[in-house]
Amino acid sequence: QVRLVESGGGLVQPGGSLRLSCAASGSIFNAMGWYRQAPGKQRELVATITGGGSTNYADSVKGRFTISRDNAKNTVYLQMNSLKPEDTAVYYCNAEHVFGSKWGQGTQVTVSS
């Protein structure tokens, strides 16, 4: 059974930092990534990383967020720095595997003073 477990969300002040983690199990995983959905908006890509380490970022987070992965642990991370109120959203992990694609349950990130 493919499973994703996310952690690391929370409340942070503008300019602060958070680190999200997503541990995957139950398959062999290819590309992994983070998406987010703010209230009233569609889910959007934040960042993705291939098994070889190639990364892709949304323009809105370039220079502030860093995606990385530990292939031995099947875990993907999202280091978020210089957070802004507009980064407030539910953040979802996604992992592509040999049987398809899996979403995590989501973790809330709130940036507010």
Characteristic key phrases:
113 residues; mainly beta; seven-stranded mixed β-sheet; globular
Could you characterize what this model shows?
It is a single chain. With 113 residues, this protein is mostly beta strands. The chain has no helices and eleven strands. Strands 2, 4, 5, 6, 9, 10 and 11 form a seven-stranded mixed beta sheet that branches. A four-stranded antiparallel beta sheet has the order 1-3-8-7, with no helix packed on it. Strand 7 and strand 8 form a beta hairpin. The chain is globular and about 40 Å long. The N and C termini lie far apart (40 Å). The relative contact order is 0.33.
State the gist of this model.
With 113 residues, this protein is mainly β.
Largest sheet, strands/sense/barrel: 7 strands, mixed
The total of beta strands comes to 11
Characterize the overall form: globular
Derived from helix and strand composition plus strand pairing, the structural class reads mainly beta
The arrangement of helices and strands along the chain is EEEEEEEEEEE
Mean model confidence by pLDDT: 96
Poorly predicted segments: none
Beta-strand percent range: over 45%
- Note the total helix count: 0
Q: What's the gyration radius in Å?
A: 13 Å
Percent helix: under 10%
Distance between the termini: 40 Å
